[in-house]
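Please predict the structure of the following assembly.
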Amino acid sequence: MADRIEWVALAVFIFFFALVTVMGFFAARWKAGPVSAHLDEWGLGGRQFGTWITWFLVGGDFYTAYTVIAVPALVYAVGAYGFFALPYTIIVYPFVFAVMPMLWKAAHAKGHVTAADVVHGFYHSRGLELAVAITGMVATMPYIALQLIGMGVVIKAMGLSGELPIIAAFIILALYTYSSGLRAPALIAFVKDTMIYIVVLVAVVIVPAKLGGYGVVFAAANDAFTAKGGDTGLILKPSQMLPYATLALGSALAAFMYPHTLTGIFASKSADTIRKNAILLPAYTLLLGLIALLGYMAYAANLKVTSNNDVVPVLFKVLFPSWFAGFAFAAIAIGALVPAAVMSIGAANLFTRNVWKSYIDPGISHAGEAAVAKIASLIVKLGALAFTLFLPTQYALDLQLLGGLWILQTFPALVFGLFTRWFRAEGLLLGWAAGILWGSWTAWSNGLKPLATIALGGASYVFYVGLGALILNIAVAAITTLVVSWVLPDRRGVTAPS
Amino acid sequence: MWILLLLPFIGLLWVPFYNFHEPALFGFPFFYWYQLAWVPISSLLIWLVYRSQAPDEAP
């Protein structure tokens, strides 16, 4: 893309990056608590975040920088189909409202820090706990790598080449996450989200005004898709409707199974905080819908890009003065830092609580847990960095896609236990394995497309493979539970839901 | 009241409801403004359910 260094953009970028770095280190002293003395402090920010902090934090780590790059890129490439992110991020909130306050209460009552803690609290099964913990860690790693890729796209757009800027940014991130824990991304999220809101609101007003209005934008995209043909267009092809709806539903059910989103839930101070957030967080969805339209604005602006991921950076460079482009790029790069930090903290919490404490040092102290988690967060981030530097970008994309289907398979273990203890741990574990194996195999044999096809009565239906795997998972869990309860009617240690 | 929470699922997952170009609004084809409209509607529905619940704890 660009070879020339954009000095003005770069200066603005560096200013904001330096600002959040200072904030990141300062965060250890914010809402004072002994960060190194307890995992609740380092890994959950002291379990004290109220409505607004939670809104910025969850908004900041659920709507990631990569989203800002990838959703318009997909919409640019295929049109309406790329818009599934919108129904996905709407229907997720009725679910969050109904289920997450219950999960918060279950975790809060017992001092649980991770999803795997909660599952172990329900079923007292080390196997199921480990399955949930490993799924969370494995699904998170490529997600962090994608944040780095998103950051790389904007750094490249400013004319900086090479891996050095990314490595530098990441070391800074790793250090302040190490010293401040969840307080760092929570504090930085205020800056990041404010910047993203400014950028997007300016873009969705100014860009169409420059290009001749939204009617022109949609018409330009329509012409481009008509010329392009295939499964593209301003509305869905009939064959795309079921994939669209199932992708939206499956993604919505998976979204709050991830360690980073759950960390935001567990860090809030009350169940009511979460309910209020289910009402307020859709503001970000509106933003996301508008961001997605940047993909169509690229057509109206007659952009030529070599890679779809360059759509957003090139659009800003072409249509805005350099200083504002720098501001927008800083917003996206800082937007990568927040989720990357929360993700590494979520994964580190899982490792500490459900691997280290469960298998290596059961008698570990609170301060010991915090120390292990701090080191684990560094290792997770180094792993993600190595991933980005040494493996092709496509691997991160493919693995992130598989990660979504994997994390969805922890849904029955985590959510069903809030309502009933009918399921047996053996059943849930077997269902989890069946869902992951069938889902991965199906996606793999489809050339890593997240879709599965089923033939029923002469017609074939194409749907999101993760949702199919979840249905299989539940069926296997139910059948195994029936068999196990028949063979072993006696069960000990399992408590009824409160 | 909890049934209100199902409405966004029905309105958005049954794609044949809204997979049209017309009627357009402010230049947005129906497909787009219909889905965007569900954002405030969903918030409102969740708020209605929230308001109907008895508070279960001190803030």
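The interface with chain A takes residues 2, 5-6, 8-9, 12-16, 19-21, 24, 26-29, 31-32, 35-36, 38-40, 42-43, 45-47, 49-50, 55-57, 59 of chain B (CB under 8 Å). Chain B has a mean pLDDT of 88.
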